[in-house]
Design goal:
The complex is a heterotrimer of chains A (about 325), B (about 500) and C (about 325). With about 500 residues, chain B is an alpha/beta fold. Chain B is built from 17 helices and 24 strands. In chain B, helix 6 links the parallel strand 9 and strand 10. Chain C is built from 14 helices and four strands. In chain C, helix 1 packs across helix 8, helix 4 crosses helix 11 and helix 7 packs across helix 11. The chains are: A mainly alpha (about 325), B alpha/beta (about 500), C mainly alpha (about 325).
């Protein structure tokens, strides 16, 4: 058991140290890096990734995975774009409602149907993507210029910080609060570390699972809305490229795939690491496309390090 | 000097927290049938698994045909002519009979990677004939019934031991799920097999063991108790040897036992049945009563406990405080005030990577929260209260439970239920399993205290002595039904042999 | 050589007929569904039932079919392979890069095909090794590898389709042999080879055993890790073939060659009756499953339902099928 303690300590500091290291390296290469302007733009850039990764953290903590977040992101943005002309600010509510609903759908099929989450969310991802295409007729749905006012809250600043960053911080705090201070947070960690024992303690594990997926859906919807605001249109393909970075962020941050270990702060650090790495690779001149290779490799390496072999009785 | 095919000398096997076998020895002669009996937890299954190479002993010698051996896998044991007919069958249901018979050893049918199905078919048929089972070897195993699969399991062992000079076949509770006629057939087969193989036969049905064996070894608490020649002993003596220990009243705090027959009925179970597990079980549970459910593995006592907690579907009535309720899941059971301490601590009750306080508060969280937010001070004080009362040895309440000893972990689990508001009934499934002697005593005291405070307990345990010592009343189960009820008042405890008579 | 193939074919046909005799629900339901769907389609658009129409239908299906054949081995073991799209794209881009094309001076012809397929086969083997040696759950390991494969293919592709000039190469997908399109012949050959491996070698038995009860299989001496790696390798091989076919058909190598294949290939496997939990199924069932999915797609087109609904229908069908197969199978703790 001593080894486990050591491993945990090592993993604890790894993300923070990496962030510091990367920042140092990057600012050495490019002194402008530390400028206020650059940091602000970095924060804005990372915000969607952070939000999506936080949502995914909940799911991974319970030992599941959600492959449909890309589609939820796209679809919620499309829904907002389509509803905006007729419903004004209510459109945002519809977007959030969709996210929660998609999460609910995922959760109930995985929980009640006892089906593996990767298959269910693979399938549902297709469903939401379809929905996005149908609503948008396959093309980005732009926001008419006279309605630009409606998205100003997303792209403007308050007290010197981009609203997007404030929203992200709010969600981070919210996420930490849920995991640390609420009953459902305790249940999530318990489930990730011993689902059967948690069930036998009288916890309604199915209901927790559904709520976890709903949370993830909500976070994904927020991400989609922010993207919509930034791009000024609802695009059915905008979320596709997020799945890999999101999963890699969570894993790099140290949350275990087996569940039960990790949390929001780690994931946030993980997301920053990914963004910094991307920036770094851009600076060095590595192809934007090769970055995908690097991320895939990082994913595999980090999962290997973080994996708790003892928990996996039979590996599938 | 007789020739022994197989000798186990001073075998010791330890698992975390449990000494399963303590210097056990066993000898098997050629063409002999040796029976192995003992209570649940006596070590029979562990011994068999060591013989089959599935477990490796911590110390001791394993001598086969005069040579010392050490098997690191079942396959290695197979290569030396040892095969086992598993209690839970080692057949894969989605494969055909032929595939199962030869799984892992298809080499002789291969021709540059191609399987010669015709030869496999013929070989399969031949093996099946040896157990008098004539069936198409390409039938899928899930399409034949249990007793037929048992025949295939035996045929598989015959394949494994074929050609070996001095082969050993291990039978692990082969008759538990068979009907009389099928058992007769099995015995016929075993008598035939005797001519070419040597056999070790484990069963809790003493009559069968006496009928088929030449020699019987009796194990208890992981130790050898005795060896008897079958012609020179009888069922009664075997009982005595299996369980005989004088009751130490003080150990089980019998003096603190309170009689509960006059108290109100907290739970009534009426005609509870679950297909394949138990049938028509009924009992009444009084407040503060400790009700013991005893039986061998497969008798239904554990299944009944799980059913009451909502883990197994069942028909029949359960009422609490005179009103009928439906329990279909553990969270429903908990909401009605029923708690459950499972047998498999690591897999089912303690969450080892969670802290002491998290484990203790887990079932009670909804009672110390407001709008979903936990009142963590309350949680801490509850934990501290129970850590103190139960004398749980832990450096901090935030320590993760994997660093606690088995006994302390069990105390944490008990605290969990004691800390949960509204718990009236506690189901204890082997509550002192894997717990050292000192902690056991503490747990017995605790059980007495719990009962004195008005919580009713349903208890099952391998250790008959423990069950008798703790319970007010004992229900004996065999093959799914309650066979006899014993009153176990503090001044009139039944003897273990009396119980065993109705268990086997 | 021909006689050997014929002999193999006839053995397998005999096995096939034996299987038909033992048909049960999980076999009848998919076949019945398929027939029903074709009846409906035939009524609406009889032209599709002609040899011409049907073979054109088949041609669109074949790359996905081959991918499904490959991934069915992995799913039958109880694992999953999320690297399909990446590997197919990589193979397609790689082969375009190496045959005579407009972008560079490579002209490796036949060898390009060998190299491309070899690369994906090795990737498949790596997938298997990551799973068995590093003990990473298959959905994550293959996800990562798929990203890597996709990345590499994008690197080679660099945003411009690599237009293929090699006429012979294009014949793979466009040509016919005795009036049967080459692709159908290739698919048939692969099907027969995989069927042979499944029924006449240890591969089929061992994969089913691992999927049925891995620890039990390991205990009786099945070399579990070795066969897991082999399965992933076979899958990689199939993705390579599919990639080559797609490149040939399109006449160009692009990095999104594989798009959409993951979803439909897995759906095809599951629809055919292979349980997502492993232990049952086979290439024939996968064949039926893929045909069902492709027929559904075609049906949507014929009935003039917007193509945007394709994913939706497929997703729903996948979920429903999985729910049913879980019900029938052993319940596990869902993750």
């Amino acid at each position: 058991m001593k080894t486990k303690e050591l491993e945990i300590d090592y993993i604890k500091w790894f993300p923070l140290l990496t962030v510091i290291l990367l920042t140092l390296v990057l600012s050495l290469i490019n002194p402008d890096f530390i400028s206020l302007y650059n940091i602000k733009s970095l924060l804005t850039q990372t915000s969607v990734l952070v939000i999506l990764s936080c949502g995914m953290t909940f799911v991974l903590l319970t030992g599941g995975i959600d492959l449909s977040i890309g589609s939820i992101v796209s679809c919620s943005g499309v829904i907002v774009a389509v509803a905006l002309p007729n419903y004004g600010y209510w459109a945002y509510f519809f977007g959030l409602l969709f996210g929660a609903g998609a999460g609910f759908f995922n959760g109930i099929i995985v929980a009640k149907g006892k089906a593996p989450s990767f298959i269910v969310t693979l399938a549902s991802g297709g469903i939401w993507l379809s929905l996005a295409y149908v609503c948008s007729q396959g093309r980005p749905v732009p926001v008419p210029t006279d309605l630009t006012y409606y998205r100003s809250w997303i792209i403007s600043e308050t007290l010197g910080l981009p609203n997007v960053t404030l929203i992200t911080i709010a969600l981070i705090v919210f996420g930490i609060f849920i995991l640390q201070k609420t009953t459902i947070g305790r249940y999530i960690y318990a489930m990730g570390n011993g689902e059967r024992a948690t069930m036998l303690s009288g916890v309604n594990v199915q209901s927790v699972r559904i709520k976890v997926f709903m949370l993830n859906g909500l976070f994904a919807a927020v991400g989609g809305i922010l993207l919509f605001g930034r791009l000024a249109s609802g695009t059915p393909t905008v979320g596709n490229s997020y799945l890999l970075p999101v999963i890699t962020s969570v894993v790099v941050g140290g949350t275990a795939i087996t569940g039960g270990f990790g949390g929001i702060p780690r994931t946030v650090l993980g997301a920053f690491i990914i963004t910094l790495l991307n920036n770094g690779m851009n600076v060095i001149g590595i192809d934007a496309f090769a970055q995908q290779i690097v991320m895939g490799a990082i994913l595999i390496v980090c999962v290997t390090i973080n994996l708790d072999r003892k928990k996996l009785l039979v590996l599938k | 000097m007789e020739d022994f095919i197989l000798e186990l000398e001073n075998i010791t096997k330890e698992f975390p927290g449990v000494l399963a076998l303590d210097n056990v020895s066993l000898r098997l002669k050629k063409n002999e049938v040796v029976g192995l009996v003992g209570e649940n937890g006596a070590g029979k299954s562990t011994l068999m698994k060591i013989l089959a190479g599935i477990y490796q002993p911590n110390s001791g010698k394993f001598i086969l045909n005069g040579e010392e051996v050490r098997f690191n896998s079942y396959v290695e044991a197979n290569k030396h002519g040892i095969g086992m007919v598993f209690q839970e069958q080692s057949l894969l249901p989605n494969l055909s009979i032929a595939e199962n018979l030869f799984l892992g050893s298809e080499k002789k049918f291969l021709n540059y990677g191609r399987i010669n199905k015709k030869i496999m078919n013929d070989e399969g048929r031949r093996l099946l004939k040896l157990v008098d089972f004539d069936h198409d070897p390409w039938t899928k195993t899930k399409d034949i019934d249990f007793s037929q699969r048992q025949m295939v399991e035996i045929a598989k062992v015959l394949r494994i031991t074929e050609g070996a000079n001095n082969s050993v076949i291990l039978f692990d509770e082969p008759t538990s799920l068979l009907q009389d006629k099928e058992i007769e057939k099995l015995f016929g087969i075993i008598n035939d097999l005797k001519k070419d193989h040597s056999i070790i036969f484990v069963s809790h049905r003493l009559d069968e063991v006496l009928e088929i064996s030449d020699l019987v070894y009796i194990l208890k608490d992981g130790k050898n108790v005795a060896v008897r020649v079958v012609d020179e002993t009888d069922r009664a003596e075997l009982h005595r040897l299996m369980v005989g220990r004088s009751l130490q009243g003080e150990y089980y705090k019998v003096d603190r036992q309170i009689e509960a027959d006059d108290k109100e009925i907290v739970m009534e179970v009426d005609n509870l049945s679950s297909e394949g597990l138990f049938k028509s079980c009924s009992f009444k549970l009084h407040r503060g009563e400790i009700l013991g459910l005893c039986g061998v593995e497969g008798s239904g006592n554990e299944a009944l406990c799980r059913a009451i907690f909502g883990l197994v579907s069942k028909t029949g009535r359960i009422s609490i405080d005179d009103s009928e309720i439906v329990i279909d899941s553990p969270d429903t059971a908990v909401s009605y005030g029923i708690g459950y301490v499972p047998k498999e601590r690591l897999a089912e009750s303690i969450i080892k990577y969670l802290s002491v306080t998290d484990n203790i508060n887990l079932s009670n969280l909804k009672n110390i929260q407001q709008y979903g937010i936990i009142k963590s001070d309350q949680g801490k004080s509850i934990t501290n209260k129970w850590v103190k009362r139960l004398r749980i040895k832990t450096p901090k309440i935030t320590t993760k439970c994997y660093s606690l000893s088995g006994g302390n972990q069990q105390k944490v689990i008990l605290s969990k239920w004691l800390a949960t508001e509204g718990v009236k009934i506690l189901i204890l499934d082997h509550p002192t399993r894997g717990v050292d002697v000192g902690a056991k005593e503490e747990i017995y005291e605790l059980i007495r205290e719990i009962a004195q405070n008005g919580i009713s307990i349903i208890l099952t345990s391998d250790t008959l002595e423990e069950l008798i010592g703790l319970s007010n009343k004992i229900y004996v189960m065999k093959d799914g039904v309650i066979t006899k009820t014993f009153s176990a008042t503090s001044d009139n405890k039944p003897k273990q042999e009396e119980l065993v008579a109705y268990m086997v | 050589m021909l006689i050997y193939i014929l002999q193999r074919k006839s053995n397998i046909i005999v096995d096939f007929l034996k299987c038909l005799k033992k048909a049960n629900m999980s076999v009848i339901a998919p076949v019945a569904t398929l027939i029903l769907l074709w009846v409906i389609i035939g009524i609406k658009n009889p032209r599709l039932l002609s040899w011409f129409g049907f073979s054109r239908f088949l041609l669109t299906v074949i790359p996905m079919l081959i991918c499904s054949f490959g991934v069915s081995h992995v799913i039958r073991m109880g694992s999953i392979d999320l690297s399909i799209e990446g590997q197919v794209s990589l193979s397609g881009v790689l082969v375009s890069y190496l045959v005579k094309n407009e972008m560079n001076s490579y002209d490796m012809g036949f060898w390009a095909i060998i190299i491309a397929i070899l690369v994906t086969t090795i990737m498949g083997v790596v997938n298997g090794l990551i799973h068995t040696k590093l003990k990473i759950p298959s959905f994550l390991g293959t996800f990562g590898m798929g990203a890597i494969a996709n990345g590499v293919s994008i690197l080679i592709f660099k945003g411009n389709p690599i237009r293929i000039v090699d006429k012979g190469f294009r014949q793979i997908s466009l040509g016919k042999f005795i009036n049967i399109p080459n692709m159908i012949i290739i698919a048939l050959v692969i099907y027969l080879i995989l069927l042979f491996l499944q029924k006449r070698t240890l591969l089929g038995t061992y994969i089913n055993a691992i999927g049925g009860d891995e620890s039990l299989a390991g205990m009786v001496g099945v070399p579990v890790n070795k066969y897991k790696v082999i399965s992933f390798g076979i899958a990689g091989f199939c993705y390579g073939v599919a990639g080559v076919m797609l490149a040939s058909r399109l006449g160009a190598g692009m990095s999104d060659l594989g798009n959409g294949l993951l979803f439909y290939s897995i759906t095809g496997v599951v629809l055919g009756g292979t349980s997502i939990l492993g232990g049952s199924g086979g290439v024939t069932r996968t064949l039926i499953g893929v045909l069902i999915i492709a027929t559904l797609k075609t049906g949507l087109i014929i009935f003039r339902i917007s193509p945007y609904y394709q994913d939706l229908v497929t997703g729903l069908v996948l979920i429903i099928t999985v729910l049913f197969s879980v019900k029938r199978g052993i319940l596990q703790i869902a993750k």
